[in-house]
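testing teh design pipeline on a random one, pls ignore if ur not involved
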């Protein structure tokens, strides 16, 4: 394994300690869910239309929120991830907070 990749991942994890749920408002503390990472295997998604991709993600987000008895979903992405940014704009996620180069987004279900 490449040592640079290991060090960059450790650096990323250390930076994540600053991005805790501490920043959430008191009124939402009871019923929220914060997904830290969403991994997509692109070879299965390349031939699917954008509308279907959005539908698949929204379906799973709703299922995850419902299964965890939450009302609000919080996600985050790095500012240089333009594909994530366009998805969240299309699907009406609201920017909740910005910390360094990370945007925290919120969507109520």
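output:
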């Amino acid at each position: 394994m490449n040592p640079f990749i290991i060090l960059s991942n450790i650096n990323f994890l250390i930076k994540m300690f600053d991005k805790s749920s501490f920043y959430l408002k008191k009124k939402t503390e009871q019923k929220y869910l914060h997904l830290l990472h969403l991994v997509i295997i692109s070879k299965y998604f390349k031939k699917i239309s954008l509308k279907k991709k959005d539908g698949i993600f929204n379906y799973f987000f709703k299922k995850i929120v419902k299964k965890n008895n939450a009302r609000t979903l919080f996600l985050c992405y790095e500012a240089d991830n333009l594909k994530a940014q366009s998805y969240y704009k299309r699907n009406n996620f609201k920017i909740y907070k910005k910390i360094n180069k990370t945007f925290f987004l919120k969507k109520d279900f």
